[in-house]
Design brief:
By secondary structure, the chain is an alpha/beta fold. The protein has helices at about 20-25, 25-35, 70, 80-95, 105-115, 145-155, 170-185, 205-215, 230-240, 255-265, 275-280, 295, 325-330, 330-345; strands spanning about 10-15, 40-45, 60-65, 100, 120-125, 135-140, 190-195, 225, 245, 265-270, 285-290, 305-310. It has 2 domains: about 10-165, Rossmann fold, CATH 3.40.50.2000; about 170-345, Glycogen Phosphorylase B (Rossmann fold). It has 14 helices and 12 strands. The chain is globular. The model has no long low-confidence stretch (mean pLDDT about 95).
Length: about 350
């Protein structure tokens, strides 16, 4: 006997606050919800740092900012505690019909419960007992994080697909890229983006290897470096003394970085947000993978290629490592060769 279909919602909340790459993996859920419920109001609970990636996404009506740093002082700061209680009351007053928690942690499950929504759905294999807050716990078999999100949505009757992994490039961001390319005499599709940064220390490719990759590839095409403020210094070192390397790390908004990648011939990155931005804007890419697992967060679709370290400890999922042998042993020549192939696959 199958469960009866859920009542169609008028107001829906997606909970996927962070990190940046994880937020992008939930885009098929947003697109599927809009396709299935074209007149529903769809909101997304997200951290301020990740919210700009949702700017201009045509299927989204509203972002609700969750300031994790501010609310992390609950009980220590009277102001933070008061603001948190106000946030919770405001969430409940919005009267969401459905809440889909794609984060699966205690705090995200807690917010689902606080919302008072009649349908509160999340993964059956959540951490931190988040499942106690749900009305619907969904078991999925897929390994890849994008497909897991899709399978959860489909279990609720949402028409979501892997092809829905799409980011809209805003007009403002397109104008920025056009200005940047004109200033430096670059052409769309005729430059390579390298995004060396990532949040995990263990996923970083050694700077000396990046230097070899950049030096070799810049003989063929101009190279544009992208990243956050934290990547500014290493990218400055990579660009030093090379007139065909342009450093935009820490100098763009997230929508502008998306547009730079969308206009590029190819992208080379570690397992980071760029690994999901590239396929979401139709740009071929190469991802360097060591401590993570390609079947879970690696390239999805025909545009991506993974270079996976060949060591016994590959896929350990450790955020920090004393030796990082896996990333150390990825050959820069192999990376450069893969980048050249990717450049030839630009649609």
């Amino acid at each position: 006997m199958t469960d009866p279909p859920l009542p169609p919602p008028e107001k829906i909340l997606i909970i996927k606050p962070s990190s940046l790459g994880d937020v992008i993996t939930a885009m098929p859920v947003l697109a599927g919800l809009r396709r299935t419920f074209p007149h529903a109001h769809i909101a997304w609970l997200v951290t301020p740092g990740c919210a700009p990636i949702l700017t201009g996404q045509k299927d989204l009506d509203e972002t609700i900012l969750f300031d994790r740093r501010r609310y992390g002082r609950i009980g220590l700061s009277a102001g933070a505690t008061r603001d948190f209680l106000t946030f919770c009351r405001d969430l409940r007053r919005r009267q969401f019909d459905w809440v889909i928690d794609l984060q699966g942690l205690f705090r995200s499950g807690f917010f689902a419960r606080v919302s008072g929504a009649g349908v509160r759905a999340g993964f059956a294999d959540t951490r931190e007992f988040a499942g106690v807050f749900y009305t619907h716990t969904i078991g999925v078999r897929a390994d890849h994080t994008v497909q897991r999100n899709i399978d959860l949505a489909c279990a609720l009757g949402v028409d979501a697909h892997a092809d829905d992994l799409v980011l809209t490039v805003t007009d403002e961001a397109k104008a920025f890229v056009e200005s940047f390319l004109n200033e430096h005499n670059l052409a769309p599709g005729r430059y390579l983006v390298i995004a060396p940064g990532t949040r995990w220390q263990s996923k970083l490719y050694p700077l000396r290897h990046w230097q070899k990759v950049v030096a070799e590839l810049s003989h063929d095409v101009p190279v544009v470096l992208t990243g956050s403020d934290d990547d500014r210094e290493p990218c400055t070192d990579l660009a030093a003394g090379n007139g065909k390397v342009f450093n935009l790390a820490g100098r763009t908004t997230l929508p502008q970085a998306v547009a730079i990648i969308a206009s590029a011939g190819a992208v080379v990155c570690c397992d980071s947000a760029a690994n999901f931005i590239a396929p979401a804007v139709g740009t071929p890419f190469v991802t360097l993978i060591g401590p993570t697992r390609p079947e879970r967060t690696g390239p999805l679709g025909p545009l991506g290629l993974a270079i996976v370290a060949d060591t016994p400890c590959t896929g350990c999922l450790k955020r920090r490592c004393r030796h990082v042998t896996c990333m150390q042993l990825i050959d820069p020549q192999q990376v450069a060769a893969a980048a050249r192939k990717a450049l030839n696959r630009k649609p």
